Amino acid sequence: MIKEIIVVEGKDDVTAIRRAVEAETIITGGFALPPSVIKRVETAVKKRGVIIFTDPDFAGEKIRKTISAKVPGCKHAFLPKEEATKNGDIGIENATPKSILAALNKVRCESVEKREEFSQRDLIVNGLIGNDGASEARDQLGKILGIGYGNAKQFLNRLNNYGVTKEEFEEAIKTINKVGMLNG
Fold first, then answer.
1. What is the pLDDT of residues 27-48, one digit of tens each?
2. Contact status, residue 2 vs residue 104, Cβ threshold 8 Å
3. Which helix H or strand E contains 49, and what residues bound it?
4. Which CATH class is domain 1-110?
């Protein structure tokens, strides 16, 4: 049983989550996000906590950002795109219970105060921007750290805002280097 309430996009996502874990959910119903949904999320954050677990696509990211901006204090779970894709369709509903549990086990809290632990230099030095394999390297690193995939700017924001430590970052870089992912 997960204490926090999980925010998802649709009914099929709820079904997939419940196959993996016992949890209460809030359905956004897409990115219109009516005031009633925001109100439920605000109440849930105060009473039990919230995990935003949206699809790893443009719409899901937009919903995540909107909720985060309106309701501070949410936690975030990210599912790798390939684990959420079935027949070209991307969504939490396509994930296996094992993938959902793995994502929920790597939940991150969004930092309230601005952190600048990481800079663009960290990305350059570690081959995460400015070379052919950078996008895939960010994807791999995002999976290990549980912060999902992002372009360079999004990735840097997530490193700084989701409490990733230098030690975690360096360990993840070592892991990727062992399998020959980075050439930075």
1. 998 878 899 999 999 999 999 9
2. yes
3. none
4. alpha beta
Residues 138-154 pLDDT 10s: 999 999 999 999 999 99
- Report d(CA 110, CA 17) in Å as an integer: 22
For residue 136 the two structure tokens come to: 């895939």
- Paired with 25 in beta bridges are 6
Which pair of structure tokens corresponds to residue 91?
Answer: 């969504």
Distance (Å, whole) CA 104 – CA 180: 27
Nearest to 23 by CA among 50, 60, 41: 50
3-state SS, one letter per residue, for 163-183: CCCHHHHHHHHHHHHHCCCCC
Separation between Cα atoms, residue 133 and residue 141, nearest integer Å: 12
Alpha-carbon gap, residue 136 to 133, rounded angstroms: 6
Which residues in the chain are classed under CATH 3.40.1360.10?
1-110
